[in-house]
Request: fold
Amino acid sequence: MSRELDFFFYIGSTYTYLSVNRVAKIAAHEGIGLRWRPFHVRAIMIEQNNRPFVGKPVKLKYMWRDLERRAMRYGIPFKSIPDYPVDPEGLANRVAVLAAEEGWCPEYARATYRDWFLENKAPGDPEHLRLMLSRLGKDPDSTISRANGETIRSRYDSETEHAKQLGIFGSPTFVCDTEIFWGDDRFEDAMEWAKSRQR
Amino acid sequence: MSRELDFFFYIGSTYTYLSVNRVAKIAAHEGIGLRWRPFHVRAIMIEQNNRPFVGKPVKLKYMWRDLERRAMRYGIPFKSIPDYPVDPEGLANRVAVLAAEEGWCPEYARATYRDWFLENKAPGDPEHLRLMLSRLGKDPDSTISRANGETIRSRYDSETEHAKQLGIFGSPTFVCDTEIFWGDDRFEDAMEWAKSRQR
Reply:
């Protein structure tokens, strides 16, 4: 059975900030492969009328406080609440799809979240994205052009459809075979599941 | 500072099944007092338009699977998905308020959840409630009569209002001073918080 976990995520999800900063190291330490799979969770959530924070200020306020406390617990920096929601055009996520195909998704996702959470540079803002891609050693024009092309758009759509077929409705979600674990706080459950499948 | 945690809960919440079966023992072991405080979370959720499962079958299906896996993890029995939602009149919860005042809330809550989850006897069904109260050594007529009286109704309302003022919007929620922790899966965070406040 599986020695791998699929890490389905959406840049724009808040708790995914914690996951991009902690799960790779733990998975590597445990000998579990981690496949980074960006998908369009917002499309699924809107389709399923699943809008956990729209018009729910009490729950939204709690979410940020909980995220801040969890970041503290994990030793992940947190300064203040950044702009939210972000990436209306989906560009940040399509670049993530390209990065996943080319093997630089972890660095890209961490840099994107760091700039968003610590400097309030919204993912998907083209000007900031160009700067960040340069810092990562990527050619901004070529990268953005491919992220806007049909191949990557189609891959983003098919990954989203695949996630939906698995019953995924939120980000992050960790998948082991057909078992899905939703939320950064279920990563440990997913790891235990994957390890128990190895035997 | 606080050596106590407030355990705000609603009989009818699904994940609260896990909490009523596990948190008292852990808190006692750690020397943290636990105050059982039933409240009307459903009223708060409806007021805040927070309906996490209504019309969301994908999320609902996942919730039950996640709950089943978590029960397995904690060694808490789980047989099959019971009837849900329950206690339309609020009787099961008003009995819990009375039980909390008289000191038998933990046994009552555990028995109620056990019968609901393992035998599909819905909380708040008067006939079953009478049988269960008898098993707990309580007089059914007197107990139900007091649970339906003005004193307990008013107490239930004021506890609900107090929860709302604290920013509580779900069950279970653990409270340490003014810090709130929502979800059975945040009990450990709440415990750590309470312990750090002792120093």
Observations:
- Strands of chain B lie at 4-9, 33-38, 173-176, 179-182.
